[in-house]
């Protein structure tokens, strides 16, 4: 079977790594990266060039395409491939609006009684500023949120604590257009204190097949300080999502999500990812994403015991009912190594030294390229390491042991990935 994975990050490397053991598969990636080129044939076609990807899939006689990033989904790649009779994993353009348009997603949640923070959708700077000020005045936590409604690749959410911050953020997004069309419409949101988690699941519109709960670390620096990034590390399973929270999210989020799809005539096949916050022991949905998380995927898939290919095919066929996912015992923890300057401007072309031998860990490439069997930096999030262990502390130790042996000029990483989970397990009297 000839399988194409669209994308070139750590998430796509993790997907391909999980597909590689399947019998009789030939793997392709567009555009891929340096590490992916060791297990798949890479071709430099950007993920948003739908016509070229379609032509490539036809010419290479691709049997299955799996979409990694959100942009091609929002642009309608699934619709284009299905129109040509090509098998593709991911939601269509109409369904992908749940990520591509945060305003639409929040209204969907409200219509179907999915617990989420109070919000207002602003179409112009004046109403955005007025509404955000109102949220700030009423907040017992002296904070509110402003989010770009369009795709901002993990960098469109702002926690604001003063009128000046509100005015500057609205000015940047709506007048200066620092995020382009993503900021033309804004979601003004009530601030809720709490801890966040990622709930990722397969769905064929009839059945939800939940993955292990995970926790991402979005800020650049330790202790959740610094600017937002695409994600600096993740681990699974996340003890924050205990049995009670899991039961509530199944009933109040995913079942209502499926019911809402049916009522609105939306066909949804692929990944649904609910970004939640647990506030006062109540889960609230902050956002829906329509694809695997990055870097959550690098922590989840190494623990999956079921055949990923079979699950993807069953999702497309609409035959997930009765399927159970099986997971390895223990934990996986992923730490991202980023280039100096990320998420702003950063230099490329720095040589990367990678250890040849290591144990209980997997290295996933992201912003890398390979020249003459040597790897060089080619992106902001350069490479990541997933450590595996019977305990979360052991998984962390194994991840950092390898991460510290990877060298490139300007390497930056957080040192506290997994610490919240370890603390929570210790407090509960469980082996961390």
From TrEMBL:
EC main group: ligase
Catalytic activity, as annotated: 5-phospho-beta-D-ribosylamine + glycine + ATP = N(1)-(5-phospho-beta-D-ribosyl)glycinamide + ADP + phosphate + H(+)
Superkingdom in the source lineage: Bacteria
Pathway(s) the chain acts in: Purine metabolism; IMP biosynthesis via de novo pathway; N(1)-(5-phospho-D-ribosyl)glycinamide from 5-phospho-alpha-D-ribose 1-diphosphate: step 2/2
Gene Ontology terms for molecular function: ATP binding; metal ion binding; phosphoribosylamine-glycine ligase activity
Keywords on record: ATP-binding, Ligase, Manganese, Metal-binding, Nucleotide-binding, Purine biosynthesis
BP terms from Gene Ontology: 'de novo' IMP biosynthetic process; purine nucleobase biosynthetic process
Listed InterPro entries: ATP-grasp (IPR011761), ATP_grasp_subdomain_1 (IPR013815), PreATP-grasp_dom_sf (IPR016185), PRibGlycinamid_synth_ATP-grasp (IPR020561), PRibGlycinamide_synth (IPR000115), PRibGlycinamide_synth_C-dom (IPR020560), PRibGlycinamide_synth_C_sf (IPR037123), PRibGlycinamide_synth_CS (IPR020559)
Cofactor or coenzyme needed: Mn(2+); Mg(2+)
EC number annotated for this UniProt entry: 6.3.4.13
Record-annotated ATP-grasp domain positions: 106-317
Pfam families the record matches: GARS_A (PF01071), GARS_C (PF02843), GARS_N (PF02844)
HAMAP family, sorted: GARS (MF_00138)
Family as reported in the entry's similarity comment: Belongs to the GARS family.
PANTHER family found in the cross-reference section: PHOSPHORIBOSYLAMINE--GLYCINE LIGASE, PHOSPHORIBOSYLAMINE--GLYCINE LIGASE, CHLOROPLASTIC
Protein name, UniProt field: Phosphoribosylamine--glycine ligase
Organism this protein belongs to: candidate division WOR-3 bacterium
Gene name tied to this protein: purD
């Amino acid at each position: 079977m000839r399988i194409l994975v669209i994308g070139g990050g750590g998430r796509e490397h993790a997907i391909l790594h999980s597909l590689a053991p399947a019998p009789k598969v030939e793997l392709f990636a567009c555009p891929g990266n340096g590490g992916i080129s060791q297990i798949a044939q890479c071709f430099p076609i950007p993920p948003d060039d739908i016509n070229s990807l379609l032509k490539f899939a036809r010419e290479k006689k691709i049997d299955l395409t799996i979409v990694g990033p959100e942009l091609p989904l929002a642009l309608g790649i699934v619709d284009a491939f299905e129109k040509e009779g090509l098998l593709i994993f991911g939601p269509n353009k109409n369904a992908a609006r749940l990520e591509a348009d945060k305003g639409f997603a929040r209204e969907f949640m409200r219509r179907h009684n999915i617990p989420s923070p109070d919000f207002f959708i602003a179409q112009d700077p004046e109403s955005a500023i007025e509404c955000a000020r109102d949220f700030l005045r009423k907040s017992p936590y002296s904070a509110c949120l402003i989010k770009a409604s369009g795709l901002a690749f993990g960098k469109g959410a702002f926690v604001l604590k003063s009128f000046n911050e509100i005015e500057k953020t609205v000015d940047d997004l709506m007048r200066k257009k620092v995020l382009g069309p993503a900021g033309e419409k804004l979601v003004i949101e009530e601030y809720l204190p709490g801890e966040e988690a990622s709930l990722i699941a397969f769905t064929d519109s009839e059945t939800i097949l939940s993955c292990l709960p995970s926790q991402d670390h979005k800020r650049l620096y330790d202790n959740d300080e610094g600017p937002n990034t695409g994600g600096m590390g993740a681990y699974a399973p996340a003890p924050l999502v205990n049995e009670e929270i899991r039961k509530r999210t199944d009933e109040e989020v995913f079942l209502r999500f499926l019911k809402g799809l049916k009522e609105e005539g939306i066909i949804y096949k692929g990944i649904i990812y609910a970004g939640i916050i647990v506030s006062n022991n109540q889960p609230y949905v902050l956002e829906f994403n329509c694809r695997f998380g990055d870097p959550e995927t690098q922590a989840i898939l190494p623990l999956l015991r079921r055949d990923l290919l079979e699950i993807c095919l069953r999702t497309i066929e609409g035959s997930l009912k009765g399927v159970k996912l099986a997971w390895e015992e223990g934990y996986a923890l992923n730490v991202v190594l980023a280039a100096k300057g990320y998420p702003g401007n950063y230099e490329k072309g720095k040589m990367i030294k990678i250890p040849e031998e290591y144990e209980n860990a997997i290295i996933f490439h992201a912003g890398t390229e390979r020249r003459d069997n040597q790897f060089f930096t080619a992106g902001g999030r350069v490479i990541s390491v997933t450590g595996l262990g019977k305990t979360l502390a052991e998984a962390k130790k194994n991840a950092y042991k390898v991460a510290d042996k990877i060298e490139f000029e300007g390497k930056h990483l957080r040192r506290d990935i997994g610490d919240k989970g370890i603390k929570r397990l210790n407090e509960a009297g469980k082996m961390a």
